[in-house]
Amino acid sequence: MVLAFIDIAEDGSIKKSSLEVLTYSGKLAKQLGTEAHGVILAPSAEDLSALGKYGVQKIHRVSNGNLKHFDAQVFADTIAQVAEQTGATVIVFSNNTDGKAAAPRLSAKLKAGLVSGVVALPETADGNFIVKKTVFSGKAFAKVKVNSSVKIISLNPNAFSIEPGEGVADVVAFNATVNTPKITVREVKKESGEVPLAEAEIVVSGGRGLKGPENWGILENLAKELHAALACSRPVADAHWRPHNEHVGQTGGAIAPNLYIACGISGAIQHLAGVNRSKVIVVVNKDAEAPFFKAADYGIVGDLFDVVPKITEAIKQMKG
Amino acid sequence: MKILVCISKTPDTTAKIAFTDNNTKFDNSGVQWIINPNDEYYALVRSIELKESDPSAIIHLINVGGADNDAILRKAFALGGDEGIRVNAENSDSFGIASQIASVAKDGGYDLIFLGKETIDYNGSSVGGMVAELLNLPYVSLATKFELSGANATITREIEGGEEVCEVCLPVVVSCNKGMAEQRIPNMRGIMAARTKPLKIMEPIATDNLTEIVEYSLPPAKAGVKLIDPDNVAELVRLLKDEAKVI
What we know:
By secondary structure, chain A is of the alpha/beta class.
């Protein structure tokens, strides 16, 4: 059985990355000729049966007050109980902030080989289990063979498309022993209404070419028009023009949106590493020799202060 | 207070990524090796800052790898750290590395175990969580701020679209993210002192690798950029809509 971990946001909503995990698990279960189940750890009790349309037959729900906030240790312990009692052979996480904390703990607990940053379904011919992941911050891929009997996959956000079909999941309560977390959450700071960068389908990004934090308004306007998230290059984050969590690149976040619009970013190799899995890259730069143009699909050689507002305007017109 | 900082060796951020032996091995010819930037800029520098505010603190550095890695530990010593440990195990996967670190740490009396959020080559982001699990310690991942008050730590960690502030009692394992500290350049005194700091070589425990890399590949090359006249941005919007179908 393939077990999908359904990660929820602080407000109880199901993360987009969880729908990717469900779709992936459903397809993998079909490939292996087995069932796909989901596991959700939540204090509340919403109707989850509709999640069956992503390909899972059953959802195990653990409801417990100790699960109010994500805690890697408590979550890994609880998921381990579900995995062991239901006989899961593959457990699938999103390689998001929670997955990065819980999946390795579960891997060590179950001695189950973990592959994180996965971008495709595994090759399972001849009893093998070989799965493709990104390495070198997106500059390359590796195929990793998992040798343990239970396997854990941590799926990169935006690497696998969500495909709703037909189906209703059977939601069952699972009685688990849930310990009190050793970590106490004091505060959750979240910009409401903003698209999380890692999950965003469109990202508008700025570099030193913006000249200063006071000029970010033109990017914000474009992002708003496209329902896009904002990102930035390393020098911008280092100069504190923008918060660190917007930094994408080798030492920042790695993202894979459908569309990445880079404004005033030269495209150093370290920056490209974090964004080159974007499906389409648009570069706006006044320097025609900027290395980013070599990695771009579409480019405009021009002054971003002139070009970006025009793009925003053109999109408004397109939408009518 | 005793801090253990995990140090990985990675290719330089500008290294050419190529493979040999039928795409089964990383081509390390001509590659400069560095301390994994996430381990260096965030985990190591934050540890050094903690020692600066509490001079009684002791910082140990640990690396799992062959004798070639001693040079990386010496580089780290130039920034700071009191003693180094290299566990002489090669070709380990994340679980193998975590098992070696946990084996050293379990009787080490460490209050804090710091490491970078991921290595820039394998991008596993796995060793910290595994070490924490093997030692039955709490784990805070992707930390952007870390403040100590006695035996309690207040840690800010990245979550999707925001951040979370949490409190935890030591000992704790923390994976360190941008924001924790700023990159430092070693000074001459540090570089001189680095040569003589004690570096202990330990033989590995018997452990399993759960995974192995069987093949590498490079992403397909881009077809080439389509340039659009800056006076005709409507054309860009049309291409994004009708050709690329992304808006």
